[in-house]
Amino acid sequence: MSGMAAQAEMLDIVRESVVAQRVIKISGGEAHESVRFDKSANTLRQLIMKQSIAAAASTPITHFVVSIAIGAIIYLAASKTLGEPMPMANFIAFIVAATALVPQIKQLASVNEQIQRGLAASTRVFSLIDAPAETDTGKIALTRANGAVRFEHISLHYPTKNTFALDNVSLSIAPGETIALVGPSGGGKTSLVNLVPRFSCRLVARYTLMTLPLMTFA
Questions:
Q1: Tell me, what's the pLDDT at 67?
Q2: Fewer CB in a 10 Å sphere around the end CB: N or C, the chain?
Q3: CB 218: neighbour CB atoms within 10 A?
Q4: Per-residue pLDDT at 57
Q5: Are 151 and 196 in contact (CB under 8 A)?
Q6: Is the full-model pTM beyond 0.90?
Q7: How many CB atoms lie within 10 A of CB 101?
Q8: How far apart are CA 11 and CA 88, in angstroms?
Q9: CA end-to-end span of the chain, whole Å?
Q10: How many CB atoms lie within 10 A of CB 175?
């Protein structure tokens, strides 16, 4: 996970906690949300520390390598083993030119960090751009629903989770009936509600409206 992705995940947790604070308090999910935030914040902190160490180490390493290279060139230029020694005027001009390159080399050493930050940010953007388009195979245009909603042995699993968000849930809601979904944070209430407008389609079994599968409605 990159630093940008970890930061985005932590901000998502903060946003969800603020928006759903009443639900979290009612269901007693403060401890659960606190653990989620601590875990995300620690992950972000570790990634930032790694980035800082890499950025801090790259500049002196680059300077060290360049210094060795310049020293070797100066030695060879001043050495008599290559034939006639370099005239003093040319030697001084070379030293001045090499010294003038040092600030530019320092700037080049910091370019890699900026490039990596840009690549990390662009990866998240491109993942959204490259996401497959939503498919809607429904043929029936629904103007007003007037039938029962039934969930029959619904099981819902998200790819990023190890457990089922919904496991063998059956529910029938009559026309005009009002029900309440009560449970702890992360218990699957939102996942169940999201099945009605088909926000979630990764499920097993069937769910119907007016005895017709919800997937048949446009």
A1: 77
A2: C
A3: 9
A4: 77
A5: no
A6: no
A7: 12
A8: 62
A9: 37
A10: 10
Would you list the domain boundaries of the chain? 3-129, 149-216
In the predicted model, residues of the chain with pLDDT beneath 50 are 204
3-state SS assignment for residue 181? coil
Given this model, what pLDDT does residue 33 score? Answer: 87
| DSSP-assigned beta bridge partners for residue 203 | 156
Number of H helices, E strands in the chain: 5, 4
Hey, what amino acid is at 28? G
What is the DSSP code string of 5-25? HHHHHHHHHHHHHHHTHHHHH
Q: How is 62-120 classified by DSSP, letter by letter?
A: HHHHHHHHHHHHHHHHH-GGGSSPPPHHHHHHHHHHHHHHHHHHHHHHHHHHHHHHHHH
Amino acid letter for position 148: A
Q: Note the pLDDT of residue 211.
A: 54
Supply the pLDDT for residue 161. 77
